[in-house]
Amino acid sequence: MTLPDESALPEGAFRQGRVFLQFFFLHLAAKHFASRYLFPSPFTLLRRKLLQDSFRALSCAADGFSGMEEKGDDPERRRILFSRSGEFFEEFAADCIILLKMKKFRIFREEDPLMDRFRALRIRSLDTFRDWISMERFDSDCRFESMTEEAQKKEIFYPSSAELAANGLFLLGKQCARLARRLSR
After folding, report:
1. Cβ atoms within 10 Å, residue 108
2. CB of 3 closer than 8 Å to CB of 9
3. Residues sharing a CB contact under 8 Å with residue 21, sequence separation 6 or more, in sequence order
4. pLDDT profile of the chain (185 residues), mean per 10
C-alpha cells in the first residue's frame, strides 16, 4: 500500500502557516522514522499504520485550512475536519506507544528533563530533530564515560536513537492533537 503524495494536498496560503507546518513536519518526521527504523522488520503493519495516521491527520487538516480560505466556508465541515485530524494525531501517538512497548523501549513522560529539552528546542525541522537526538546521545555518552566501571554496569539509562526518536514523535503527535482540537472549536 502506498500513501498519496503530499502534492495531492490542497494548495493555498495556509501551507505557510505555523500550525500547518507543524503538522507537515510531523508527517515528514514519521516518514523518515519509518524508513530508517521500521523498514526491513517485523513491524511492517505498524509502519503502515503510523504512516497512514500521519497522512490522514495532515490531509484532514489541509482540507480544513483550505476551507478557511474559500468563500462560503462551512464552519461545521471545518470543525469536523480538524476534529478528525486530532483523532488521527491521537492514533499516531498511540502507534508510537505501541512501537515503544513492542521494542521494549522506555516511554518518557512529558515532564522528564529529556522531554523538557525537546520542547525547549521548538523542533520544526528534521535537522533540529536529529540535533536533539545527537545532543541527548552525546550527554549520555559523557555521563556514561564519567562513571566508574561498577556504576557503568548498573547504568540502564543509555537511550538509543530509535528510542529517542519514537518518544519525540509521540510528544509531537500529542502536541499536534491538542492543536487540532483547538482548531476544531
Report:
1. 20
2. no
3. 15, 124
4. 66 86 94 85 85 95 87 84 96 95 89 85 86 78 67 64 92 95 92
Residue 179, C-alpha cell as written in the block: 492543536
pLDDT digits (tens, 9 = 90+) for 136-152: 877 666 666 666 777 65
Contacts 24+ apart (CB under 8 A), 104-112: 105/160, 105/162, 105/163, 105/166, 105/167, 106/159, 106/163, 106/167, 107/167, 107/170, 108/167, 110/171, 110/174
Place of cell 502557516: 17
Q: What is the pTM of this model?
A: 0.84
What is the rounded distance in angstroms from the CA atom of residue 107 to the CA atom of residue 133?
A: 15
Angle between the N-to-C axes of helices 18-37 and 75-102, in degrees from 0 to 180, rounded to the nearest 10 = 30
Asked if 61 contacts 8 with a C-beta cutoff of 8 angstroms, the reply is no
Cell numbers of 105, please? 523501549
Which residues lie closer than 8 Å to 163 by C-beta, 6 or more apart?
100, 103, 105, 106
The pLDDT of residue 95 is: 95
